Amino acid sequence: MIEKQYAVIGLGRFGSSLSRELVKLGYEVLGIDINEERVHEMSQVLTHTVVADCTEEEVLRSLGIRNFDCVVVAIGNDMQASILTAIVLKDAGVTKVVAKALSELHGKVLQKIGVDRVIYPERDMGIRVAHQLVSPNLLDY
Ligand code: ATP
């Protein structure tokens, strides 16, 4: 079986935790962030790391981004950067784009662009914890 290749854009708390876990699960992960320090912190953990502004089409194309099976946009606060990155990824032909949204409106825009899965980390975690509280025997994953 050919292993899936993942790329995670934005190595904040969410992106770094997600990419760390994917590596633990045995997958190859390219981590990209505009912030050199964040990239440096993850450089020993991830398969490959790059410092880049992912709103720039040429940068993503030169990284061969369309060859990845799944690309996660883990940029939240900078909504413009999140949306521009998602457009560039869909235009480049990435098969599966997953993006984090910080608000319903942000999520709606991402969906309209064609993002394949929108996640709301705080909202989704709240729901998951509530289920775990009422059914403590529920598996954690
Ligand atoms: P988290 O909530 O996951 O901790 P955060 O609070 O650090 O994230 P976010 O704005 O969600 O802040 O950004 C996540 C990461 O995305 C940051 O490390 C930031 O440097 C990176 N980032 C922001 N804009 C870009 C961009 N244009 N290209 C690449 N990375 C970016």
Automatic annotation (TrEMBL):
GO terms (BP aspect): potassium ion transport
RCK N-terminal domain boundaries: 3-119
Signal peptide, first to last residue: none
Domain of life of the native organism: Bacteria
GO terms, molecular function: monoatomic cation transmembrane transporter activity
Coiled-coil intervals: none
Protein name per UniProt: TrkA family potassium uptake protein
